Structure formats: C-alpha cells, structure tokens
Amino acid sequence: MRPSGRKTDQMRAVSFERGVSKHAEGSCLVKFGDTHVLCTASLEERVPPWLRNGGKGWVTAEYGMLPRSTGDRMRREATSGKQGGRTLEIQRLIGRSLRAVVDLPALGERQITVDCDVIQADGGTRTAAITGAWIALHDCLKWMEERSMVKVERVLKDHVAAVSCGIFAGQAVTDLDYLEDSSAETDANFVMTGTGGIVEIQGTAEGEPFTEEQLGQLMGLAKAAINDLVALQKSAVA
User: Known EC number(s) (predicted)?
Assistant: First the structure.
C-alpha cells in the first residue's frame, strides 16, 4: 500500500492554471498533488552572444525553491552568492527538455527564458516544472503569434512532459510524493515527447541495484503517465 493510498500506476491530481502572471508573456501554475510550481516564460529580442547572427533563437530555463516551499525554511541561494549543484542540474534539464521540441531557427534571433519557481514541494518538483514549463512556453509563443512574430505550429514541434517513477516497498510506482521519494529503493525521472520520443531518463538505485525487468516496468508506467499528462496539456491549451 502506498502512503497516499494510490494505485501503483496512479498519479496525483494534476492541474494547470494559465495566465497567472500579469507581466509574463506566458505563465502557468502547475500542481502535481501538493507540489506546486509557478512557471513564467519571458521573451527577449536578443540571443546569447555566442548565438548572435546565427539565424536561430534560444530557449532556456531557471529553477528555484522558495524558502518555505519545504517543511523547514531554506535559505535563498542568492544569500550564499551562488546556485547549488542540484539547482543548476535541474534548470539545465528543464532547458534541454524544452529545446527538444522547439525549432530554434523558426523562433528567430530571440530568447525565451522559462522561470520555474517551486512554491510548495512534495516530491517531483523537476517533473512538474518541465510539464508546466511547456504550457508557459506555448502561451509565450501564442502571445508572439498574435503579434505576427511567429507561428506556434512552426516553432513548437511537439509536447514534452515528465514524471517520476520508482521502486517503493518492492513495487514499481508512478509519480512519487516526498514520503515515497525519500525512502524509495529506486528513483527515476522520465522526460518524453507527445509522440513518445525519449528526451532524458535519470535513474538511481538508492539501495539494491534495480534489474532490467524493473527498468522496463518503470518505463511502462512512465509512458502511460506521460500520455495522460500530454492529454491534459492539450486540453489546457485548446
């Protein structure tokens, strides 16, 4: 039995609230159960110096956790003068995931930055961030389309979403919350496109090594969950 009472293949309740930021070109508050992440997409009419005059744009991401997103107050990373290794790793993952479904030349020499701020954490913050970031990116491109800057269907080639799966109490389960994540025997994150392409798989055995058969079970759970997430994305932006 999972602590939440969910079935092994059951995700937490997922929701997307669009247009939550007055100023951002695209925004989405994504909730995976008690994990809540605010994603805002900002457009700049420039690209990084190393991309100038290259005829293509750039999509990148930043990630952070608010001080009381967790049980005890966390210090803001800005107070220490640098970002932690986990933060850097996650924001690079979000950026790679989004770029996997973007036609950068079709974007033109512009940069879109998606900021993913964790308001409340209960496991799976990176996977929620990726899934909500796609919505924010889509809405930013829609904002651009309304101003005759791009065509969304030319720039955004596919959906992308992510989910955590793991081995908990000897069973393969979908969408780990904190109680499961903190004591899972195996923890894995899957990032996939709407057409089933694999963007990234991160898998770690926390105790005993996991088997190829268990990896296949996790992959099966992830594919089914991401299909559901993509369906929810499509419904949200329809």
Answer: 2.7.7.56
